[in-house]
Design a protein that fits this description.
79 residues; mainly beta; five-stranded mixed beta sheet; 5 strands; 10% helix
Amino acid sequence: MMVKVKVFASLRKYIPELDLGENLDVTMESGSSIAQLYEKLGIPEDEVKLAFVNGQYRKSDYVLSDEDEIGIFPPIGGG
C-alpha cells in the first residue's frame, strides 16, 4: 500500500531531500502501523509528539490504510 507523509519542524532532518510542504510517498506492507512507518523513515518514536492520519489524531499503534495522508509533528516549545 502507498501512504503520503509530511514531516514538520525538527523531524524534517530525517528526510532532508523533502522540500518544505512536500509529501513523501511511502510504500508500506498492508496492516502496518504508524510506529512501523516511523521505523521505516528512521524517525525515533520518542521524537514524535503527534501524528494525524487524514486530519485525525492517531496513536502509534493505529493501522494505516492505502492512500492515507499522515502528518508527523515533534513536540514544539515556545515562550
